[in-house]
Design goal:
Blueprint: E1 2-8, E2 11-20, E3 25-30, E4 35-40, H1 45-56, H2 62-76
Helix pairs in contact: 1-2
Length: 79
Amino acid sequence: MKIRDINFNNVRSHVYIYENSEDALYLIAIPELNWSLEVDITLNEDDLKEEIVIHLFTLIDESSANTIAEDIIERIFEN
């Protein structure tokens, strides 16, 4: 599991990213937003970002959702 810091709306938060290889899923959670999402591990970066933005947009504005999604994507694909 990766635990990384993200910043949005001048708030520092944690994002938790768990890679479940057996089920081919990422479980992504941001407890401060009471938000989590399971997404298919085979999605490319663009599709993954779109999926994250769609689900975050139900809680926050589109600009913040895009920023957070970009941060999450960066953290998923970092070494």
